[in-house]
Structure formats: structure tokens, C-alpha cells
Specification:
- This protein is mainly α.
- The protein has one domain: 434 Repressor (Amino-terminal Domain), CATH 1.10.260.
- It is about 45% helix and about 0% strand.
- The chain has 4 helices and no strands.
Length: about 80
């Protein structure tokens, strides 16, 4: 099965998630807790792995991240 992303990175949004989370002065645990209120279960360790691009992100998780971080989904793909 061909990979869309070259190299070892497993997502395209990790850096942006970290940037937006820090801009909101939110810890990884707080982000995890707020996702849980949307019935999206991503533990703190998984948030860390998303941010360091060693974990994939599902469409549902992407939606939840956009809701919690209060940005449109497109914002994760902007430079």
C-alpha cells in the first residue's frame, strides 16, 4: 500500500497541534481531557505522539482537535 507521507512522519499536523495548543496555554493533559468531553478518547501520551508525528490522526480526532482548539480544520494545514 503506498504511503502519502514520505519518511517516518505519520501525520502532517503535529507541529500545528503543538503550536495551537501552546497558544491557548493548554497542557497535553488538558487537551486530552477536553477531547474526552466530545467522546474522543486520546490519552496524554497519544497527544504527545501526535505532536511528534509518530502517531496517525483519524478524521474524528482531527474534527475534535479543531473544536477544542477553536480553529477550522484547514488551519492545521496552513504554514
Amino acid at each position: 500500500m503506498p504511503r502519502i507521507i514520505d519518511g517516518n512522519d505519520k501525520n502532517l499536523i503535529g507541529d500545528k497541534v503543538r503550536e495551537l495548543r501552546k497558544k491557548k496555554k493548554m497542557s497535553q493533559q488538558t487537551l486530552s481531557d477536553r477531547l474526552e468531553t466530545l467522546a474522543i478518547y486520546v490519552c496524554r501520551g497519544s497527544v504527545s505522539r501526535i505532536e511528534d508525528k509518530s502517531r496517525t490522526v483519524t478524521d474524528i480526532e482531527l474534527y475534535g482537535l479543531s473544536q477544542v482548539l477553536e480553529v477550522p480544520i484547514e488551519a492545521f494545514f496552513e504554514d
